[in-house]
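Human
Can I borrow your eye for a moment on a structure tokenisation matter? Give me a protein, with the fold worked out from its sequence. Write it directly below this note and I will take it from there.

Assistant
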Amino acid sequence: MGTFANILRKVDSSGDRFTATDITMADDQCHSCTHWKYGTLNCAAFPKGIPVGFLMAEFDHTKPYPGDKGLRYSPKK
């Protein structure tokens, strides 16, 4: 894991979800998804915090993920 990933893991105090809103997201699907809540690390699928693996571009959210309420990545138009 690179430095950015280590910083993200250190900031994560809730186990597998981020609650901090003052970090820069990795080049991932989240920031280009219609479900993402701009300026936060939350989305419609994960209102209590997007799982770390998505923020670090380790997971592909075009596939089901536990707890995502059936919502998947949907690119902004």
In short: The first helix runs from residue 3 to 11.
